[in-house]
Design goal:
The structure is a homodimer of 762-residue chains. Chain A is mainly α. Chain A has four domains: 18-172, no CATH class; 173-373; 385-392 and 665-736, no CATH class; 534-664, no CATH class. In chain A, 70% of the residues lie in helices and 2% in strands. Chain A contains 33 helices and four strands. Chain A has a two-stranded antiparallel ribbon with strand order 1-2. Chain A has a two-stranded antiparallel sheet with strand order 3-4. In chain A, α2 (19-40) crosses α13 (326-336), α7 (126-150) runs antiparallel to α8 (163-169) and α23 (468-494) packs antiparallel against α24 (499-513). The radius of gyration of chain A is 32 Å and the shape is globular. Chain A starts with 10 loop residues before the first helix and ends in a 6-residue tail after the last helix. At the A-B interface, α9, α11, α12, α20 and α24 of A face α9, α11, α12, α20 and α24 of B.
Chain lengths: 762, 762
């Protein structure tokens, strides 16, 4: 269906005259809104442009379906809890049928996707092929495993390793794919340094072999010291991770101080130089790659916005620059973001159309995706409900005095002091009745504080989405109140306290103390930075989950049951060597590491976390290599290289980069223009003075209303410049400064080219 | 002595006519050359401008005196080896008199400095006051300690802590001071994050106390688990360093898997988030501060060059721009850098004066300091000595064939293979006579390789200063030959092998294998980067030395003799608990850490290195806190915070930054202009093809000479662009790109201002 030539008459005027045209108009808006929201969320899906496909595509992007996909992936992943070796063993038919259900859901989702995008694009996209392969292999594995089990043979559920890869390959896993891509692109450089590093370890090992093997030295547990070349290589590799320092050096050092030189040189070269170089190489490659990705994202975003413009454009006069009218623009925005207020929308329009022409050109239109991503908070200046109910009482002198007392800095300091005193009481022994009863007193104080604050502040403002600490406070205090009451009730009725409830009470009490941080401005700044980086870190959470899951599945197949844990109460003699005689008197058993095993998925994950922490990983690895084969060390080495050398370094690189952006870039140009507009329109509030202002302006409004003079607008805006709606926004801001100068021009050309030759036809 | 108005006649023409004028000319050159070399080496000493002071200042900067100062500081520092508690105990009078000698040297140096710079500047400079304070306090301490010892009382040599501070406060310690300054400037930010981090640990500790103290859990060695608040804080701090992971978690984890959540959250927040934030804050502040320092350095450098120009300037015509003539310029360069060749000097001149006017203006003159810092290697194209001796033989067909065989890539690969085979032979047991004799074979091969290479390459070129690997090869092979011969001689004469000589032989043999790295181009690139960063890392070496020395001195006073080491051969029962009954059955004694003590300076340094490696530092610290007081942990905590959190992070920041510079900036503009000039003059050689080129061009020269056609110049230049003469050059290059655009203008104004109002009068 080819898009008809737009008539010079604005669509708004002709709307309603013909049902056909209105329907077409509707389709246009649908399409444009898809382009805008694709641009806004950086979705890069080349969807089919037929009306059905567009409707299907809107459905495909529905948040409900996306949540459902993640939910079923989660279900699929957590099946590991119930499959043999299980935390809670469920019969095979149960897990199998749940898995089958998941697979059906994924197939349905993929079919949906196939209907949205053109067929040839679908089969060219590696991620679709990956999903198909994963699902096919899983079904095959289920069939084989099911039949083997039916025949009472043992089988390996090898396809479980593939499950987390679904997270990477679904449409929504774009950021995760990006992370994997950046790792893959850094690999050649990392490999180069890694080879050099291994070469260095081999050279040092050879030297150690020649220096120490003939000296008849013994380690602390009487084993010969540095006599086997492969063992030396492993020991020195462990020394690089610092896990066996200084033990590995002690026998040589005890025999002569001179030998410490060997280890000092080794440590300097391999621990300090090479590890820094690894970080540098990973960081450098990560940054380079990210920059390229962001450049492409920005290009794709502008391209999509240009296409949306092409759909909505109208020409007032033949030959003039095409424009989008205010009416169409505003219907588009309403469709893309139904949640934003009319005032907010008008604010954005006035940023786009500063000269109030009533229509905007392509350049201004392209900004829209970014404008929608700037979080503008609309603060309705509502009077306090008490003021509406009893205005005379609420506005009386004593009430006003109370309000100003509560808003005084001293009030905050007083409660900070109370929190500190509370901390001391918490630390003291709670079996003293005076102290355990003091808890009621403190709870009452905290409740009083919240009530007093609610007396001053309008409740909906107080509990608005962005007042993190108010929410935190209230939830913690109320939860603590409920838990404490439940605990006391239980105690007085049955005479004993429930350990679980008590634990919750304790945790809530301690968490309350965190609030002190918010009172100190400079701490708040750091915390805010951390919170801002938070969502971006979640990508790394998924990355770690994928890697951990794969290693856990492999580990469970390899090492299941090799190490037994007998529980802290057990008196069985086997508990001293983790139920495996091979572990008798080994460091693994002596350190009481029996619970660090691969017998179920939870303990596997904890074990992998311990391996990530590096310390004692050689002891853990020795436990499993002793009970299986010394080649088992390869598994642990591989884990170390993958997670510690690569992923943790990328994580550090990311945090470093995010911090630098936070410190150097203050606000983007676009944010500044929105903020300037807010200021121009005298609609702004300063973040710090927000709470005081609310009350003050409330009072001013009253007095002004009394004077009958100019009315203040009833709406206030502020930019939540310190929060990012999407992770991409943060990443894009990272390189915005580098990108903008040359890239804007380049993109302009491209989008212009795209505009003059619209490849997209409705 | 005020500078007389320069006559428009060039000084060179009038030189020699009057002794007075020539002497004055000489003084001018002295002064200008001081400014230039100050600018070149970034010395910022405001010296007096009287002729005597200038002569004294030249003497002050003499390399001999500088080396002497470092030598005496080294002597002073190494006195710790001979003072009680000593490695080799010398009588008190001996160490005291050496120390007195050192102090006298430092006083002499300081007096010299006082004579060079104006009196008021001297007393305003904190580093001079620091040195005076250090020396006074040291003398006082020596007096007190000497008298106490004479009275047979025990005393504390507290002034030893001050010794390393001399390294920081001497004039030459500029870079070290800069490093300390950048640490000091980063401190407020670090402190803020550190307080938040400590707060987080306290909150988690409180939670741990409430959760675990009443559960009656026991650690592996039967101690109650998490019952004492301070102990919990310490344990959790140690967990942040990962040193007691996973042991500290095991009792809680064994009792219930749920508790692992507590530790996982703790680790995520404190280990991964906070430690990355520390690195980010340290890095960010370090970079910011360094940028500012470099900006000032560049400004000071240009200022000094402008002053040098003011001294040498001449006006050809009244009212014209002042210039410096080629003659004066070249005498100046000869004075500043007597070692560079005439050709090199002319090359630099042609870069400054591309239009061959015979005189340069201020802008071109100011470049000189940077030009002198660019290392241009002059390669004299000498014919091979054998060619001069037996030209017919050397240029005969078989000889030429031999040369081309040796230069063939296969020759290098062949010897790489030989090295690999050699590595296998080294790894095998050397008691097998076949294998021990194979060593002679390999040695002969390596010697043959060197001789063959010398046959092809001109010896002085082969052993030029920049051919690191040729030097490395030859030294290693010759040393191995000597050591192997010595060993065999000893064996055949006395019948046993000396362990020491054998060790050296082994080390040399293994070191030989390193050469393989050089054959692989991509490895060579990494190695070159590391070598380039090398000198800059030395500043950190000094920094670490200062911090280590101070901690070692304090540690020796606090913990001397608390832990005894009995030697590996000892059978004394005390060796099982390090001679201190308090250590019986502690982890410290069980791990056999007795030699990790503060009983002398060498073992203290090794212990501090182990603490820097972090692993097991809690065991080491517990050893010393058990034998003294639990407050001793503060010493170890302080060391961890100072060295691991601050200094190691700065080190990582430095390596990261240096790597990024290496990867991003290829060459500076100035280097490019020199290189372009070299190319223009057809004097260049490409680095990679250097060796082949030398021989090829040698042959070409011959053939050309035979043909009697145009002669090639006998000199070749290349820029050692991959090496930096000074650490500052590297640091400046780090921020050059950021600095140049705005800063050049600013400096131009400043230097112009300085020029029009010359504050400097001879």
């Amino acid at each position: 269906m080819s898009e008809p030539e737009k008539s010079p008459v604005s669509a708004a005027e002709t709307a309603g005259e013909s049902g056909e045209q209105s329907k077409e108009e509707d389709l246009d808006l649908d399409l444009a809104s898809i382009f805008v929201s694709d641009a806004q969320f950086n979705r890069n899906i080349f969807f089919d442009s037929s009306p059905q496909a567009v409707r299907l595509y809107i459905l495909y992007n529905h948040w409900g379906l996306q949540v459902a996909v993640y939910f079923f992936i989660l279900v699929d992943l957590s099946l590991a809890l119930f499959e043999d070796p299980a935390v809670v063993l469920l019969p095979l038919w149960a897990t199998m049928s749940v898995e089958l259900l998941c697979i059906l859901v994924f197939i349905a989702r993929l079919t949906h996707y196939a209907k949205v995008i053109p067929r040839d694009k679908f089969w060219k996209d590696p991620k679709n092929l990956c999903i198909i392969a994963i699902l096919t292999l899983t079904l095959l594995d289920m069939l084989i495993y099911g039949s083997l089990r039916a025949l009472d043979c043992s089988g390996v559920r090898w396809s479980r390793v593939l499950r987390p890869l679904l997270l990477v390959n679904i449409t929504e896993g774009r950021r995760l794919r990006q992370a994997f891509r950046s790792i893959r692109n850094a690999l050649p450089q990392i490999l180069l340094v890694f080879l050099l590093f291994i070469f260095s370890i081999l050279i040092f090992s050879l030297m150690a072999l020649k220096l120490f093997s003939k000296r008849g030295l013994k380690t602390t547990d009487g084993a010969p010291y540095f006599t086997n070349f492969l063992q030396i290589v492993f020991d020195l590799y462990v020394l690089v991770t610092t896990a066996n320092s200084p033990d590995i050096m002690m026998p040589a050092y005890n025999s002569s101080s001179i030998f410490s030189i060997f280890f000092i040189v080794f440590i300097l070269v391999n621990v300090y130089i090479f590890m820094s170089v690894f970080l540098a190489v990973v960081y450098n490659n990560y940054k380079k790659h990210l920059k390229e990705e962001v450049r492409q994202l920005v290009r794709a975003k502008r391209h999509k916005m240009a296409r949306a413009f092409a759909v909505l454009q109208q020409k007032s006069v033949e030959g003039a620059e095409p424009v989008v009218t205010h009416d169409r623009w505003s219907r588009l925005v309403r469709r893309v973001r139904p949640d934003i207020s009319h005032a907010h929308k008008e604010l954005l329009w006035s940023v786009c159309d500063p000269e109030e022409k009533g229509a905007i050109g392509k350049l201004a239109f392209v900004q829209l995706a970014d404008l929608l991503n700037i979080e503008v908070i609309t603060l309705k200046q509502r009077p306090h409900p008490l003021q509406s109910l009893w205005p005379t009482l609420y506005l009386s002198k004593p009430s006003r005095l109370l309000c100003s007392v509560i808003q005084h800095r001293g009030f905050i300091i007083l409660f900070d002091l109370i929190i500190l005193v509370n901390a001391v009481f918490i630390a003291l022994d709670e079996e003293n009745p005076l102290i355990s009863n003091s808890e009621w007193f403190f709870l009452a104080l905290y409740l009083l504080e919240i009530i007093l604050k609610l007396y001053v502040h309008e409740p909906r403002t107080f509990f608005s989405r962005h007042n993190f600490w108010n929410w935190f406070d209230t939830i913690i205090v109320v939860a603590a109140l409920i838990a404490t009451i439940a605990n006391s009730a239980l105690k007085s009725s049955s005479g004993y306290t429930s350990r679980q409830i008590l634990d919750i009470v304790f945790i809530l009490r301690v968490l309350r103390l965190i609030r002190v941080v918010d009172s100190i401005n400079r701490f708040r700044a750091i915390i805010n930075t951390l919170i801002r980086i938070g969502p971006a870190i979640l990508t790394f959470g998924q990355l770690i989950l994928v890697v951990y899951y794969i290693f856990a599945m492999v580990g469970m197949e390899l090492f299941n049951g090799k190490v037994q844990f007998f529980g802290p109460e057990s008196e069985a003699p086997e508990r001293l060597y983790c139920g495996n005689p091979l572990l008798k008197d080994t460091a693994f058993a002596l350190h009481n590491y029996c619970k660090n095993n691969f017998n179920q998925v939870v303990s596997s994950f904890v074990l992998l976390l311990e391996l990530t922490m590096v310390n004692q990983w050689h002891v853990l690895s020795s436990g499993f290599s002793l009970t299986t084969h010394s080649a088992a060390r390869l598994y642990f080495l591989l884990f170390h290289i993958t997670v510690v050398i690569i992923i943790i370094n990328i994580f550090v690189a990311f945090v470093l980069e995010a911090f630098f952006v936070e410190y150097s870039v203050e606000k983007s140009d676009l944010q500044n223009s929105v903020e300037k507009k807010i200021e121009e329109l005298q609609l702004g509030v300063k973040q710090e003075k927000l709470e005081q202002n609310l009350v003050n302006s409330m009072e001013t409004i009253d007095s002004e209303q009394e004077d009958g003079q100019k009315k203040r607008p009833a709406l206030l805006f502020k930019i939540a410049s310190k929060r990012y709606r999407t992770v991409d926004a943060l990443i894009q801001r990272m390189f915005e400064n580098d990108l903008d100068p040359e890239d804007f021009n380049e993109n302009e050309d491209e989008t212009n080219g795209n505009f003059s030759n619209p490849a997209f036809n409705l």
